[in-house]
TrEMBL record:
The keyword Signal applies. It comes from Mesobacillus selenatarsenatis. It comes from the Bacteria. The lineage of its organism: Bacteria, Bacillati, Bacillota, Bacilli, Bacillales. Residues 1-21 form the signal peptide. PANTHER family: DIHYDRO-HEME D1 DEHYDROGENASE, PROTEIN NIRF. Coiled coil: none annotated. InterPro entries: Host-pathogen_enzymatic-act, N2O_reductase_N, WD40/YVTN_repeat-like_dom_sf, YVTN_b-propeller_repeat. This is YncE family protein. It holds the Pfam family Cytochrom_D1.
Length: 327
């Protein structure tokens, strides 16, 4: 099976993170700062295109057919992360506003935004003000909520996508960053980069509980059956695999400085992008068997592999390489 996996490599601006999505209601969501992990940018495929959120303040719409930029959407600030709605009609992106120097930054106290675009026309539908330095944005699978982690406020904003209003602001751990929502849309699992925990948000009661994961968790992934959680641990060079029933944690050694991860369509493998640091970048993607908790393959990528996603048919992996500015 591993031999049939292809890694797509194309040139793109400031590529960091990735999400793939198909046209219509089916989405495949793979795959957000703190130690050497920069503002994340994700990609998404919509019919014949995928979108990339670029740190320079743009969103690129790239043709899948020839891997060339078809259109560029301008934004005022750092576009940190991007996500497609479950129905494939709306693209949501987190935006860190520019500082006096003209770039988005940390610690300015200026609320960030989530931008909502029509996925087909690229028209801006709405700007929603959230917390300080928004990191990742994720739709619940039922389309009822949009969640946004506010990295410097230690909160998550809950947005109603029908009204584009913030309906809840929930405290998290220190430095909330990447996260995933369970397939049944009941729980959000948020990696708190500033500590060693994952915040578990109950989306029915909006209560938060915290579980230990390991040092510098960057993002999470949860299997479709809701039984297994995977967490990248940047400072431990490991993937934490958590049994959500027993809360038992098993750590599997991966590459240096793992950033984002994606659980494949079959739910058996976790694909981990190993970023490293700018001074000593990693250039690999580790594939971990979640059942045996072993590494089954490692594939060479570009420098600073950050985001990763896998196509719905399991044939292609898309990896963003933040120090090469490629996908």
């Amino acid at each position: 099976m591993m031999s049939r996996l292809n890694v797509k490599m194309i040139s793109i601006l400031a590529s960091v993170g990735i999400v793939l999505a198909g046209c219509g209601s089916d989405t495949a969501t793979r795959v957000e700062e703190k130690p050497a992990v920069k503002a994340a940018k994700q990609e998404q495929i919509l019919d014949r295109y995928f979108f990339t959120a670029n740190e320079g303040g743009t969103i690129s719409k790239v043709s899948v057919k020839d891997n060339k930029v078809a259109e560029t959407i301008q934004a005022d600030g750092v576009v940190h992360n991007i996500q497609l709605s479950p129905d494939g009609k709306v693209v949501a992106a987190t935006l860190v506003p520019p500082t006096e120097g003209g770039h988005g930054g940390h610690g300015e106290g200026t609320p960030g935004k989530v931008l909502f675009y029509d996925a087909y026309t690229n028209d801006l539908l709405k700007e929603v003000e959230v917390g300080n330095h928004p990191a990742h944005v994720v739709y619940s699978g039922d389309g009822k909520y949009v969640l946004v982690t506010n990295n410097e406020d230690n909160t998550v904003s809950v947005i109603d996508p029908e009204t584009y209003e913030v309906v809840r602001t929930i405290p998290t751990g220190n430095g909330p960053h990447g996260f995933r929502i369970s397939a049944d849309s009941k729980f959000a699992y948020i990696a708190n980069m500033g500590e060693d925990t994952v915040s578990v948000i109950n989306l029915e009661t909006f209560e938060e509980e915290r579980m230990k994961a390991g040092n510098t968790p960057v993002t999470t992934g949860v299997t479709k059956d809701g039984e297994t959680l995977a967490v990248t641990l940047f400072s431990e060079n490991a993937l934490a695999i958590v049994d959500l029933k027993t809360k038992q944690v098993v750590k599997v050694e991966v590459g240096i400085g793992p950033a984002q991860l994606y659980i494949g369509p079959e739910g058996k493998f976790a694909y981990v992008a190993n970023q490293g640091t700018e001074e000593s970048p990693s250039n690999s993607m580790t594939i971990v068997d979640l059942e045996t908790k072993t590494v089954v393959d490692e594939i060479k990528t570009g420098n600073g592999a950050h985001g990763v996603t896998v196509s719905k048919d399991g044939k292609f992996a898309y990896v963003t390489n933040m120090f090469d500015n490629t996908v």
